[in-house]
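Replying to the earlier thread about multi-chain prediction with a worked example.

Input:
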Amino acid sequence: MKILVIEHPAVAGFVAHGLRDHGHTVDVAHDGETGLRLGRTGGYDLILLAVVLPKGNGLEVGAALRRGGSVPILLLTPDDHEAEHFIRHVGANGYLVKPFRFGALLEHVNALDRTQPRPPHTG
Amino acid sequence: MSRTNRSDAVRPQGRAVAGAVGQRDRFERLLTAGLAIFAEHELQAVLQRVADAARDVVGARYAALGVLNEAGTGLAQFVSSGLSEAERARIGPLPQGRGLLGLVIRERRPIRTADITRHPGRYGFPPHHPPMKSFLGVPIELRDRVFGNLYLTEKVGADEFDAEDERIAVFLARKAGVAVENARLLERLREFQSSRDRFYAMMNHELRNALTGVYGWLDLLVRRDKGAAPPAALEALAAAEQTVQLLHDMLDLSRLDAGRVEVKVQDSMAEAMLAEALHSVTPLAEPAAVRLDAPALDLRTPMRTDPKRVRQILVNLLRNAIQHSPADEVVRVGFDADDSLVSFSVIDRGSGIDEERQRQLFDAYSQVSEERAGTGLGLTLSRRLARLLGGDLQVQSRSGHGATFTLAIPRFMNPAP
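Result:
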């Protein structure tokens, strides 16, 4: 999968590293502005988006990305409340509360992987 | 004569104007007014009650009350009594305190006069102001601060206000002073709380980002090396996990304090919640060589509660038991239900908890001490959550004989109003 990670450097580092180890192509943006520019033009299969971001908060970036296409968005959030608020107003395909284990992230990413044939039971 | 004596007792000045019946009537009305003032919470309503009461008890055609802003540069609140809306609108802007009203505040003493228009401190009425002659003004003060003034005009049934009228006005003004101070303290408390909430939200976010990096990298390293990860990496990961747990608990505790933990009531199965909690602590039990012994968990106890919070409490109890259990020992889990109550118990064979520590166990705030170090916030949080679900969390233990924690919660909880 081609994945865009829009996150604080402290988080983006290991996320990008781990996902690359699992065979994904990963781009990283550390702020909303860069994330939006890459997200609009990069042809990604999945976007991991921080709810709180410098330069254009996650909510605005998410809304703009949603308007631009149907790429799945997985939120990385400091708590459930922020994520629920985001999902109510913008929509997303799932969320992970920070801090999270890499394994938990991988499960979410695999579940949203449209490039792989899905096992029948997840339909 | 009993009438005179009584009158004198209430009014030492002894100017026998009203009889005992009038005295008692006034006293009654003052008491009633005092109670009515206490019943109000909104500052504006309290002030209105004070002005109305002053007019009624003292016996004046008009009353008004002005509260200065905190800088003392103008009025923050103003209420009047006895003027119709139309009359008040015709008078126009609020009084500026250039005349007698300002004098009351500046000199911090009551002023009484039979004729305002002849008083040397007068400034004059604005156009469309109803004619007023007799005047009684008292400062609203509390301790060393002046908050404003209460004044009455046009004494009913006499040409001027007397000393007793003045004492009643001073008494009511004092009540207004207390109300103003309370309202301002409450306002300051709210401001403090909201800036504290913003601070915690920001700290929560920053801490989580930083910790996600630590936790994530360690997890990645340990995963990559599979079984061969160096002990240092494993220990660091465990420490990061503990920190993550503390952070979650701290946030929950601060939300409980702010009354912002919502109970999300759903249909759920008691056995399923217990099974999920057991499943999530299994990775902790194995390395500690602790065996978890639970009854068969067939799904046959439907409940209506917040399953996420029940699981959270159970995980806390199990984690606590595993942590305090000696190696190669059993942590026993019990489960019991009737029509109205479900209770879960977690029994460890650790060193037990003496009575002194049992009292501290659920109260992380009042007992911050060296002895508490390392106990985390899990039990404090769990009891608070149990109570939020309408139940309770109790411990039974004797030093040297392990501990039994029992969570008892209503089986069917009403959805939050």
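Chain B is about 50% helix and 20% strand.

Feel free to reuse this layout for your own posts.
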